[in-house]
């Protein structure tokens, strides 16, 4: 089935999958527990999904933890959780660990995020940053100690840096984009809790930090987002729903995922929760400060679940990393199990 056709039947397909039996009957009879852990970036979406689902199905307990993308995959790949929240695709070593444990999984994109750089609200000199200037601040090679070292004319105030912890998928994504094969500096204040980063930046006039756009939207009264110069357009672009979706907020637009244990998916409570999640994902993404994916992607995700299509689209058969827009990569042709 072509993606366009999938998009046209997506709402009906999802609703049918969710409501195999009458909803009222399931309200009273569906029992069990769904265990989720992983990304702090994806947490607000999963928590919102859990909250809505348990209102409809009060006898199902949904636990949502926050141990970072890497920490979540450590638990997921040994069968400790049913669902792993991830702000980046699964890595080759995590894929191998899952395979060694006999864990097969569904890879389901749920939203777009724009990794957002923020400074203190009173900062009146940083209006935008180029990727090269970001490298000066965050990499071991650049390691700027003052703002004056980043751009001529900026104050000689010392830079205070706040960043996600190394178990975070946001850290991994930022490192890949900014440092490549190099390293991020070691003297940053780090935390797996994005709220700690918000507190750090908002309490330090010379600070800079980064996290998912939703945490900025929640705290925009005390933080200032920094426009990023798009390398191709050579123009500063701020993180908005439109620029994140159309990709002009480059290079920091990215998809967010949930990974579902295929064995767990056979349990009625997990199957219904995942169906609910995908059905509500566009609405939940918007409500939590993220951006909905195209309908074709959600339809393809549910088609994977219905058809038992497990594996990842982000690794090749040789376990090399595969990159590209989610709309191009997330097709049956790229699936590797």
UniProtKB/TrEMBL annotation:
GO molecular function terms listed in the Swiss-Prot or TrEMBL record: phosphate ion binding
Stretches that traverse the bilayer: none
InterPro entries, sorted: PBP_domain (IPR024370), Phos-bd (IPR011862), Phosphate_ABC_transporter (IPR050811)
Signal peptide: 1-25
Domain PBP: 25-278
Any single GO BP term: phosphate ion transport
Keyword terms, alphabetized: Phosphate transport, Signal, Transport
Family: Belongs to the PstS family.
NCBIfam families noted in UniProt: ptsS_2
Task of the protein: Involved in the system for phosphate transport across the cytoplasmic membrane.
Protein name: Phosphate-binding protein
């Amino acid at each position: 089935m072509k993606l366009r056709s999938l998009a046209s039947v997506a709402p009906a397909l999802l609703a049918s999958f969710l409501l195999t039996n009458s909803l009222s009957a399931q309200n009273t009879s569906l029992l069990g527990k769904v265990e989720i852990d992983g990304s702090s970036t994806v947490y607000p979406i999963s928590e919102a999904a859990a909250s809505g689902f348990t209102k409809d199905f009060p006898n199902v307990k949904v636990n949502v933890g926050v141990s970072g993308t890497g920490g979540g995959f450590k638990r997921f790949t040994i069968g400790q959780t049913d669902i792993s929240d991830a702000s980046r695709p699964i890595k080759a070593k995590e894929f191998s660990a899952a395979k060694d444990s006999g864990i097969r999984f569904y890879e389901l994109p749920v939203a777009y995020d724009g990794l957002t750089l923020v400074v203190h609200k009173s900062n009146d000199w940083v209006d935008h940053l180029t990727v090269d200037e970001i490298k000066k601040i965050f990499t071991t090679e650049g390691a700027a100690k003052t703002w004056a070292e980043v751009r001529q004319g900026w104050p000689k105030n010392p830079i205070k840096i706040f960043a996600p912890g190394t178990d975070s998928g946001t850290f991994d994504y930022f490192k890949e984009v900014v440092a490549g094969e190099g390293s991020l500096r070691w003297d940053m204040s780090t935390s797996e809790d994005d709220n700690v980063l918000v507190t750090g930046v908002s309490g330090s006039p010379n600070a800079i930090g980064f996290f998912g756009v939703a945490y900025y939207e929640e705290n925009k009264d005390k933080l200032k987002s920094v426009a990023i110069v798009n390398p191709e357009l050579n123009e500063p672009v701020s993180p908005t729903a439109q620029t994140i979706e159309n990709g002009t907020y480059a290079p920091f637009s990215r998809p967010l995922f949930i990974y579902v244990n295929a064995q767990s998916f056979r349990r009625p409570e997990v199957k219904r929760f995942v169906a609910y999640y995908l059905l509500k994902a566009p609405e939940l993404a918007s409500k939590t400060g993220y951006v909905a994916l195209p309908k074709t992607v959600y339809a393809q995700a549910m088609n994977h679940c219905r058809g038992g299509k497990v594996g990842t689209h982000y690794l090749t058969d040789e376990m090399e990393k595969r990159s590209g827009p989610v709309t191009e990569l997330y097709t049956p042709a790229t699936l590797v199990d």
